[in-house]
Amino acid sequence: MPYEERLCGRPLGMRKGKDGLLYVIDAYYGIFSMNFTTGALTRILPSNMLVEGRNLNFPDDLDIDDEGNIYFSDASRRWDLSTIYYLMTEYEGDGRVIKYNMKSGEIEVLVRSSHFPNGVQLTHDKTALLICEISNRRILRYNLKGSKEGQLEIFADVLPGEPDNIRTSPRGTYWVGFTSARNYTNPLFMDYLNPYPTIKIIWARLHHAFGTLLVSLAEMASYPFLKEVAYKFKRGDYVLPLLRRHGLVLEFDENGKILRSFHSPDGKISDLSEVKEHEGYLYLGSFINDYLGRLKL
To answer: Taking the CB of residue 205, how many other CB atoms lie within 10 A of it?
Structure first.
């Protein structure tokens, strides 16, 4: 149930490490490893860990290199997964990308002041980290090695939607899932509000205030149905379905050029958070949908 999400946790990104363990990043509880054989679950990095004076408020996605470094995104200082609607509405720019060494315990912020950093993916040669920045509708490249080490560049810009997670293909390319495509005939919710920043802020604050009041009343009443309605309202669940959806998947080459695109114009399949290629199929995951999609290439 939505109102139990914070209690139960919500895994968002998963990777299989070189050591055979499954690494999971949870939006509320931090980073864990799981042993496939024993089922043992170990918390590696708790969300209340302070990094440069602030905790991990919205751990989102992760990747791991061969040296035991975990690269992960912390999407926002103020908002978490349960209030993601307001993060996107306010265009907040204090997200981070962080590097954590599991052997030494050393932790370092690589990227600051990012507008909703989400999916992260090491390049095939491990010299850079690709970062999907949802609110700016672009993909960044942070150079880890070489003459440009420490520099942040644009990998792909002015994308036709909001990029979520990014994953590799067997050919050395990159798949990206989008919450929804956008163009002049199919604008997204933020496109309607962006020309009116004051109205957008007022709308977000009123919606949040009313949602908070509903949640408080539902908690006092202690009825599961009322709790579900209140939490869904505050999270924006009743606003987004009113807008037209357009499913989109893009494949990029190593230089950020779009190679292929797959569309669901009627929105039957949309809100895609991750795309994984395996044995001639694309598997389509979502943070909202109650199914796993599959597309034959």
So the answer is: 13
What is the fold, at CATH topology level, of the domain defined by 5-187+240-296? Neuraminidase (2.120.10)
pLDDT tens sequence across 82-111: 888 788 888 889 999 999 999 999 999 999
- Look up residue 76 and give its two tokens: 């926002």
Distances (CA, A) of 81 to 9, 138, 264: 10, 20, 26
Domain boundaries, the chain: 5-187+240-296, 189-239
Backbone angles phi, psi at 269, to 5 degrees: -120, 115
Q: Is 83 left (phi over 0), alpha (psi -120 to 50) or beta?
A: alpha
Q: Which residue has 């496939």 as its token pair?
A: 36
Q: What is the pLDDT of residue 144?
A: 97
State how far the Cα of 235 lies from the Cα of 145, in Å rounded to an integer.
40
| Per-residue DSSP letter, 39 | -
DSSP for residue 113? E
Tell me, rounded to whole angstroms, the distance of Cα 173 from its chain centroid.
20
DSSP 243: S
Phi then psi for residue 258, to 5 deg, are: -75, 125
Mapped onto helix, strand or coil, the DSSP state of residue 262 is strand
202, two tokens: 């007022």
Residue ranges with strand state E in the chain: 11-16, 22-26, 30-34, 41-46, 59-64, 69-74, 95-101, 107-114, 117-122, 128-133, 138-143, 152-156, 161-168, 174-181, 247-252, 258-264, 272-278, 281-286, 293-296
Per residue in 220-270, pLDDT tens?
887 888 888 888 888 888 877 666 788 899 999 999 999 999 999 888 888
Cβ(172)–Cβ(124) under 8 Å?
yes
Burial annotation 140-163 (CB, 10 A radius, 16+ → b, else e): bbbbbeeeeeeebeebbeebbbbb
